[in-house]
Write a structure and sequence with these properties.
Number of helices: 3
Strand order of the largest sheet: 1-2
Distance between the termini: 113 Å
Shape: elongated
Helix content: 40-55%
Order of helices and strands: HEEHH
């Protein structure tokens, strides 16, 4: 494999190219640009950095940050309320699941579709006949 010549690479980045935008019907040149690979790279990189900085500034310096849950902003009261709400929601979901399970088992018993019979022996205390 050949060595990469830094001087040759720099020369390729600085080679000038012409970009021409033409009217398709009349072949008239509408706009023409003289570009190099280096200038295109610089413009695209600058645009990316500028958009990133503007996005971060928009989030940090405006109230939008309070609506983004992953950013970590918000007051302590909101965070506490969200945690309470999450705990209550989880409790309600568990209660609903248990009730549905109870109703399903109750429906099986009432329909007579119980496959397991209760074979546990109950030991009841003996009660003497009490007559009044």
């Amino acid at each position: 494999m050949g060595k990469i010549d830094a001087n040759n690479t720099l020369k390729r980045l600085r080679n000038r190219y012409r970009l021409v935008v033409m009217n398709e019907d009349t072949y008239e040149e509408v706009v023409k640009f003289r570009l190099s690979r280096l200038s295109v790279y610089i413009v695209l990189s600058s645009t990316f950095v500028l958009l990133t900085v503007l996005t971060v500034a928009l989030i940090v310096f405006t109230p939008i940050k309070y609506y983004l849950p992953g950013v970590g902003y918000g007051d302590a009261r909101q965070v506490r309320d969200f945690r309470k709400l999450k705990i209550r929601t989880d409790s309600i979901e568990n209660e609903l699941k248990f009730r549905q399970q109870y109703f399903d088992h109750l429906k099986k018993v009432l329909d007579g579709k119980v496959t397991e019979l209760d074979t546990n022996k109950l030991e009841l205390p003996k009660i003497d006949n009490i007559t009044d």
